[in-house]
Structures are given as C-alpha cells and as structure tokens.
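Support case: magnesium ion complex. Customer-provided input:
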Amino acid sequence: MSKTIIVTGRGGTGKTTFAVLAARVLPSPKLMIDADPDQCLGVMLGVDLAENGVHTVSEALYEIQEGRVDQELKAMPLAQKVEYLLNLSCLYESSEFDLLTLGVKWTRGCYCAPNDILRGLIPRIVDNYELAIFDSPAGLEHLNRRVLTEADDVFAVVDPSAKALRNVKVVQEMAGSIGIRFENLYLVANHRFPEQQLDRLNEIEGAVYLGQIAPDPAVEEADWEGRSFLDLPPDSPACLSVAGILRRAGYQPAQ
Ligand SMILES: Nc1ncnc2c1ncn2[C@@H]1O[C@H](COP(=O)(O)OP(=O)(O)OP(=O)(O)O)[C@@H](O)[C@H]1O
Ligand SMILES: [Mg+2]
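Agent response - structure generated as follows:
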C-alpha cells in the first residue's frame, strides 16, 4: 500500500525543509513531487534538473503545445503524449528518491485539458511508489489546481501566528468544498514556535498536533551554502525531531 503525504503551510514556515527531512529519514522507494513554481525542492534535495536533462511538467506541456515533440509522438492523443513525456523527460530518478517537478502554473492556451490529464496521471505515477511526498507552495491556490485530490496525511507546518492557525481552518474548509480527501491532518510547529505557545496547537479541532521541528543551525548552513539537506547527519536536531513527528504519525523512520 502506498502512502501519500502533502506538506502545506504559509510562506517560509519550513515546508520544504520538512519534506526533505522526511525523505531523509523514511525508507525508499519514494517519489518527491514539487508543486512550488519556485522549484526549491530539487535544490534542497541536491538535484540540478537542467544538468540532468530533466524537464518540469510545465516545460513538457509547453513543448507539446508548440508542437516541438518527436514525429512519432505527434500523432498520439494529448493524454498519451503527456504521459509519455512525463515518464520520459520529467522524472528525475536516483537510488534514494525520484523527483517530479510541476513548474510554473500552466496558463497558455486551454490549460484545463493538461490539468485534467495531470489529475488522472499523477495518482497513477504515485501508485508506483511506497511513499509520495508532495511539497506545496505557500498559500492555498495550489489546492485549486487539484492535481492531487487524495492523500493519506496532510502535514501543516505552522509558524507562531494567529494567521497560521486560521490558515489550518481554511485548509480544512477548502479541502471539503473542492473535494480533496485526506485521512489525517497533522500539525507541526515550525522551528520558530515558542515553547510556551505550543499548547495552542492542541486546541485545533479536526487536527492532531505531533511536535515541533527543532531549530538547527546545520539546516541554515546547508541552506546558505546550497547543499543538499539529505546530507544532514541523522542525529542532527532537525532530523531527529522530524523522525519523532513521523513516528507519531505511524511511519517508520530509519533512526
Ligand atoms: N529546523 C530549522 N532550523 C533552522 N532553520 C530552518 C529550519 N527549517 C527551516 N529553516 C529555514 O527557514 C527558511 C524557510 O524554510 P523552507 O524553505 O523549508 O520554508 P518553506 O515553507 O518551504 O518556504 P516557501 O513558502 O518559500 O516554500 C529557510 O531559510 C530554512 O533554512
Ligand atoms: Mg518551500
């Protein structure tokens, strides 16, 4: 049975860091999906897409729209073309993880068609893995894109602000109204959350607070130097705290 995780939250709270550290401590095979147009997930995973000749999904859709695809592809129906290109040129593969990057929102031509196709395709790709971790952009607009409508666990990384807590409510309401289904909504306090405020996270209905990501100078250092977060030592405070959070959600991290 494969498991799908969505990481969500407001801007700059530590979503991508949490997603990468989850990849660091959970067993393979796993698929990482970057739904943020900023494409930070690849950087934090130490992957240079261009160097590896890997395209974003948006780039592949653009090639199709422009008719810049091989002759034998031209005759294929759109859905088949997209599936072919996704598997052939958009999937970065390695022994530790695979990575699919959605890229900037598809806005040229009629973007309903490619989005509808992606909505059908992405769950099929996810099914090939034991685990898929979906890193969201800040805000909730991406939910509207609905490329992934079912998940096992949503981890909301929250910063210490009333807005962040309201944001959790909005995720709950919006998921209900636009039809995104998930089993569990977990709250994770970010590295800046003051200890004396943590109790507030136990009071949110319909969500379970699992713990805090420890502040870790090694994370900041890796970030400044553009190094992969996957190289953080397993006993670093951030890795240990993320492993604890995942364990409380029923996962089996390596350490
Ligand atoms: N545990 C931590 N300890 C110290 N610094 C951290 C920690 N987690 C994240 N940071 C720092 O916080 C900043 C934001 O982290 P990150 O990029 O993961 O957030 P994000 O929510 O994905 O941001 P965005 O909304 O832009 O996608 C980064 O500079 C990162 O180095
Ligand atoms: Mg991010």
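The chain has a mean pLDDT of 89.

Case will auto-close in a few days if no follow-up is received.
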